[in-house]
Amino acid sequence: MKLTRKDLIPVCALMLILTGCWNNREIEDIGIAVAMGIDKVDNQYVVTVQLVNPSSISARTGDSSRAPIVTYQEKGKTIFDAIRRLTKTAPRKTFYPHLKMLVISEKLAREGFANSLDLLARDPEFRSDFYVVVAKNHRADHVLNVLVPVEKIAAQNMYSKLKTSADVFAPTLALTFGDLLHDLTSPGKQPVITGIQLTGEPLEGEKMENLQRVNPKVRLKYTNIAVFKVDKLKGWLNEKESKGYNYIENNVKSTIVTVPCFTDKKENLSIELIDSDTKLKTNSMNSHPEMSVSVKTDANIAEVGCSIDLTKQETINKIEKLVEKDINGKIRSAIKTAQQKYKLDFLGFGEVVHRSEPKYWKRVKKDWDKEFVNIPIKSKVRVHIHKLGKRSNSYINELKE
Amino acid sequence: MVFKKRALKKLVKDKNEADAQPQLEDPKIEAPPEEALSTELNLNIQYLQQTFGNSSDLSFSDFELGNKKAVLIYINGLVDKMIIGHFFENIGRFDHLIKHSEFLTKTIEASDFMKQFFAPVNQVKEVRLYKKVVSAILAGNAVLLVDSISHALVINAKGWRDRDVSESATENVVRGPKEAFTENIQTNTALVRRKIKDPRLWLEKKEIGNITQTSISVMYIHSIANDKIVKEVHERLDKIDIDGILESNYIEEFIQDEVYTPFPTVFNTERPDVVAAALLEGRIAIFIDGTPFVLLVPALFTHFFQAAEDYYQRWDISTLLRLLRVTAYFISLLGPSVYIAIINFHQEMLPTPLLISLAAQREGVPFPALIEALIMEVTLEILREAGLRLPKAIGQTVSIVGALVIGQAAVEAGIISAAMVIVVSITAISNFILPAYNMGIAVRILRFLFMFLAGSFGLYGIAAGIFALSLHLCSLRSFGIPYMEPLAPYIGSDMKDTLWRKPRWKLVTRPRLLNQTNVVRENVSPKNK
Amino acid sequence: MLENGKISVRQFTVLVALYTVGTAILIIPSILAAKAMQDIWIAGLIGLGSGLGLVFFYWKISERFQFMNLVEILEKCFGKWIGKAVAFSYFTFYIFILSTFVLRDIGDFMLTVMMVETPIEAIHIIFLAVVLYGVKLGLEAFTRTTELFLPWIVILFVVLFITLLPQIEFTNILPIMENGIQPVLRSSLSFIVFPFLELVVFLMIIPYVNEPKKTKKAFLLGTALGGGLLILIATLSILVIGVTETARSIYPTYDLSKTINIREFFQRVEAFMALIWFITVFVKLVVLTYALCLGMASVFNVQDYKLLTLPIGLLLYIVSLVIFPSSTYLIEFTPIYDFYAVLWMLMPVFIWLVSLVRGKPV
Question: What are the protein's UniProt keywords (chain C) (predicted)?
Answer without folding.
Answer: Germination, Membrane, Transmembrane, Transmembrane helix, Transport
